[in-house]
Write a structure and sequence with these properties.
about 0% strand, about 90 residues, 3 helices, about 80% helix
Length: about 90
Amino acid sequence: MEGYQLALLAAVVCELILLAFIFCIARFYELKFRERTYPIFFLVPSLVFLALAAFGFYAIELDVLITNVCAIVVLATAGLLLYRKMMGVSR
C-alpha cells in the first residue's frame, strides 16, 4: 500500500469517527428535547463508506478517493443540518 492510500484511509477513518460522534449527539438531542433529528442519516452513510473503502482496497484506488469525497460531503451536510436544528434556525 502506498503513502497516498494510507493518507486517504486515515482521512476516511477520521470522517467515519466524526459521523459516529455526530450520530451520538443527534440521538442525545432527540431523546433529551423530543425533537426529531433523524440520527440514522449519520449512521447509514458510515456503513456504506466502510463497505466502499473495504472494496476500494481490492479494486481501483479511485474508489477510496471517491469514498473520501462522499464522506466529506455527507459529513458537512448532515452536520450543518443538525447544527441548524439545534440552534433553532428557521428555513
